[in-house]
Amino acid sequence: MRKLYLSKHLYLRKVLDRLHPKLCYLNMNSVPPTLKSNFGLAYLILLLLSGFIPISAQSYFPIKKDNLWGLMNQKGKVIHSPQYEAISAFDIYGYATVQKNGKVGILNTQARIVLPVSFEDVRILDHGLFSIKNNEGWVLMNQKQEKLVHGVYQEIKKFDTGLFLLKKDTLWGVAKENGTIISKPQFVEIQKVNDQQFLVINEKRQKGVLHESGKLLLIPAYDELLFLKNGLILAKANSQWGILDRNGLLKTKIRYKAFDFMSDHYLRLYTYEETHLFSLPCQRVIAAEKVNNFLPLSANFVIIKKQGKIGLIDFCGQPVLSSIYDEILWYNNNTFRVKKDGKWGLAQKGDELISPFKYDHISPLMSQLALFREANKVGILNADAQEVVTAHYARIALDGNTAKAYQNAKKTDAASVDLLKFDNQGNLTGDISIQKHYKVRIGGGKQNNSNASTEQSTYILPKFEWFYDSETDRWGLRGNQTGD
Question: What mean pLDDT is predicted for residues 7-12?
Fold first, then answer.
C-alpha cells in the first residue's frame, strides 16, 4: 500500500487540527460570504498562515472530518463526503489520487471517479494512461480499465511520447501506448536518442541501436555510441573508434584512437601514425596524412598542407588546387584568391589562373566588387575578375555599389575624389570628379554588402578576414579593404 501525502500545507493543517478539530478547510478567497459566517475565526487563521490554493481548476476544496477527507465545491456543496484517508493534489494531466481502506483510485478534474478505489497502487503516466498494481505486479491500463500491454511487470514507467518502459527480472523492454511491444524485457538499460526514432540499448555493458519499429539496427557490441548528422554513428569498441551508418554498415574501420570535429562538415580521425579526414556530406575518408595538415575553408572545400605549401580539395576529396601556394582564400563560386612568391592572383580548379600573380593584395568580394593593390595603388575588380577600375588611386572606400576613390591617401587633404557607381553585375556606370572634396553624399538606395557567392567562407568578417600563412604556420587577421 502506498502512503499518500496531501500537500505541502499538511503541517499547517495539523496546527489547525489542534485549534478546531472538526473544521473543514477551505480557500477563503473563493468561499461565498454566506459560508464564511458559519466558520468564523478559524478561516482567518487559515488565510493568514497558509494561503491555501484550490486543488483543481474547478475550485474544489478538501474538507476534513474525523480524520477523513472529502471534497466540496465553491458553492458549498459536498461532492465527496469525508471518506478518504488521503486526497492528493491534481497533477499536470488533471488527475488526483484518493485512498480508502488501503486501496487507491483516481479522480478527474470534475471530481469524478475514473478508476475505482480498488487497486493496490496506481501511477499516472499520461492522459488516460495508468500503471496499475495488482497482486502479481504492474499492468498498463486506460481509464476504461482496458489492459493495453500483455503481461505483468515489476515496473512500468513513461519513457517518451507514446512509449513506455517495461521491467521484468531486472531487465527492460519498451512498448507503445497502443499495446505494441517494441522489445520484450531483455536489456539492462534503454535510452532515447534526442528527438529521433532510435533507442540505445545496453546489454551486458555493450550498447546497440534499436529502431522504434522494433528493428534491431546495431547489435549490442559497442562501449559508446555518438549520433552524428546524416544518419551516422561514432562507435567505440575496445578503446578504438570508427564510423557506421544506422544500418550497421561500416564507413570506416574501428581503428582510431581519437577524433575531433574540424567543422560541422568534417571529422579528423587519428591513428597512431596518421590523421584521416572524414567528410560527413560524402560519408567517407577523403584524405590521409602523416600529420594533421587539414584546415577548413568552407563547407565544400578543405585546405591541405604539404611540404610547407597548401592546396585545396573538395568535400569528397577531389583535387581542386595543387599544394603550391602560400595562402588560399575565398573569392567567388569556384574562384579562389591565391598567393605565391609574395604576389596574389585568382585561380580556379586545376590551377587555372584567371588573374596573374601581380597583385600585392586582393580583398574579399563585397557585393560584386573587390579592391586590389598593385604598385602601391588601388583599383577595383568585379566578380568576374575584370579590372573595372585600374590601380591609380591612393585609397578607395567601397560602400555597396558605390565607391569613393581618393587621389591622396590622407583623409584630411582637400584632394580630389572620384565618386564611382556600379550596376549589380559590378560594371562601372558613373564617374564624377569633385575637387577639394571634404564630404559628399551619394543618392540612391544602399545595396546589400554581402559576398556575391553562394558559398561563403567562414573566415570573412564584416571588416576583417582571418588568414592562414603556410610559411609561418600561423593564423592572422587583416583588414578586408586595406589588407593591413
Answer: 36
Cα dihedral 251→257→262→266 (10° resolution):
0
**Facing residues of 286 across strands?**
none
Q: Which H, E and C letters describe 400-464, residue by residue?
A: CCEEEEECCCCCCCCCCEEEEEECCCCCEEEEEEECCCCCCCCCCCCCCCCECCCCCCCCECCCE
Show the cell assigned to 368: 560584386
The Cβ of residue 99 has, within 10 Å, a number of other Cβ atoms equal to 21
* Contact predicate 249/233, CB 8 Å: no
Instruction: State pLDDT tens for residues 150-194.
Output: 899 999 999 887 899 999 999 999 999 888 999 999 999 999 887
329 and 447 in contact (C-beta within 8 Å)? Answer: no
Q: Which residue has the higher pLDDT, 97 or 45?
A: 97
Q: Which of 360, 373, 327 is nearest to 472 (CA)?
A: 327
CA distance 235 to 225: 5
Q: Please tell me what DSSP assigns to residue 140.
A: E
Grid coordinates belonging to 241:
573508434
What does the block give as the cell for 57?
Answer: 481548476
State residue 197 phi and psi, 5-degree precision.
-90, 40
Cβ within 8 Å of residue 229, ≥6 positions away: 264, 280
Task: Give the model confidence (pLDDT) of 290-343 as tens digits.
Answer: 877 898 888 899 999 988 899 999 999 999 999 999 999 999 888 999 999 999
Interval 31-55: pLDDT, tens: 333 333 333 333 333 333 333 334 4
Torsion of CA 135, 136, 138, 139, to 10 degrees: -100
- For residue 47, the model assigns a pLDDT of 31
Which grid coordinates are listed for 466?
A: 582571418
- Partners of 266 in the beta sheet? 279
Checking phi first, is residue 162 left (phi over 0); if not, alpha (psi -120 to 50) or beta? left
What backbone torsions phi and psi does residue 30 show, to the nearest 5 degrees? Answer: -110, -10
Q: SS3 helix, strand, coil % of the chain, rounded to 5?
A: 5, 50, 45
Beta partners for 138? 133, 153
DSSP label at 366? B
C-alpha cell at 176: 507503445
Asked whether 199 and 211 are in contact (CB, 8 A), the reply is yes
In angstroms, rounded to a whole number, what is the distance separating the alpha carbons of residues 192 and 236?
Answer: 19
3-state secondary structure of 334: coil
- Kindly report the number of other CB atoms within 10 A of residue 224's CB atom: 11
Sheet holding 301-306: strands in order across? Answer: 294-296, 301-306, 309-314, 319-325
Query: How far is 228 from 221, CA to CA, in rounded Å?
Result: 19
Burial (0-12, 13-18, 19+ Cβ within 10 Å), 90: buried
Q: How far apart are CA 478 and CA 484, in angstroms?
A: 5
- Please give the backbone phi and psi of residue 252, each rounded to the nearest 5 degrees, phi first: -140, 165
